[in-house]
């Protein structure tokens, strides 16, 4: 299997694995085929609830869907990561989306720079 470097490539992979069109996936998620196309093209990102549904549809983890790698269960989670998770959980959904969007953008920018 070819390495899938982007979130969009992994969304497309899951969609095709389930033999769905962009329209059918959009219908399943309550979104349009244009939204699914934008996710696959990398011009927009799905919201967190949509990521959860896509991961479930593909019977995979959100970790793999977002990063392309599986979490290493033998590595302990750092205290800093746990604190970030606690802070994130305390935010409203609106603020969580803003944080996620910002982090996604930073990650994409870092990947472009090499």
Keywords:
single chain; 114 residues; mainly alpha; 434 Repressor (Amino-terminal Domain); 2 domains; 67% helix
Percent of residues in beta strands: under 5%
SSE ordering: HHHHHHH
CATH class group of the largest domain = Mainly Alpha
What low-confidence regions span 5 or more consecutive residues with pLDDT below 50?
Answer: 72-76
Give the radius of gyration. 15 Å
Between the first and last Cα atoms, what is the distance in angstroms? 23 Å
Number of separate strands? 0
State the fourth-level CATH superfamily of the largest domain.
lambda repressor-like DNA-binding domains
The whole-number mean of residue pLDDT values reads 86
Helix segment tally: 7
* Annotated CATH topology of the largest domain: 434 Repressor (Amino-terminal Domain)
Number of domains: 2
Q: What's the shape?
A: globular
- Give the helix proportion (percent range): 55-70%
Question: Main β-sheet, in a few words?
Answer: none
CATH architecture of the largest domain: Orthogonal Bundle
> What is the structural class?
mainly alpha
